User: Fold this.
Amino acid sequence: MDEEIKHRTARCKSSLVLELSICRPRDTNLVNIIRPMGNALAGVFYLFLAGCQASNTGASNPTSAASINAGTHEAVSTVAPAQSGLLGGSTGNMLCHLDLVSGSPITDSQATARHGRGLALEGWAQMNGKALSSLLIAFKSSSGVNYSVRPNLGVPREDVANAFNDPSLKNAGFAVTSDITALPNGSYELWLRGTTPASSSTCDLKVKLTVQGGGAV
Assistant:
């Protein structure tokens, strides 16, 4: 038996405390070592270890907006030319805010993105006091050629629900990690186009994004 595993097993049996260092999938051998002991102490240890392993996989812990950074989130969406009229016409009152750009807070309503590094956008939006059923982030160019990307909806935002005193907004967050290969160099205003079953509207995120490292607009 590996001496390190022996030491960890003895320590857990005596204290019933699992340290973070053994909360790893590679320590599943500990389960096989302890299960044959057949006493209450081993049973308690097994339950602790099983719970530790479950939390380590992230299965019971939804991805939060703050955990998504450019280049690290598996679900990557591609920025593409937007449909004509994306930002025209509104039938609802939409409120929104962009919290982070590639993991960093926004300074003076300005942000920068570089080709080859991806772009992560994280924030929240609601319309007429309701969470959105669909959303597009629009990159509005002064040239008139706009681009868009579809973010993930339903990101937990208890702070938004508390701020509006409305529990229905607890999942009003959005987040996306995007491939900006198709987005030319230049300056873009960031907007949202959101819909609910009853309304559709736009919202100015009041952020100017400068894209560098690609072709000029």
Observations:
- The helical segments are 3-15, 29-34, 40-57, 158-163.
- Residues 4-74 have pLDDT under 50 and may be disordered.
- The two ends are 64 Å apart (CA to CA).
- The CA atoms of residues 10 and 16 lie 10 Å apart.
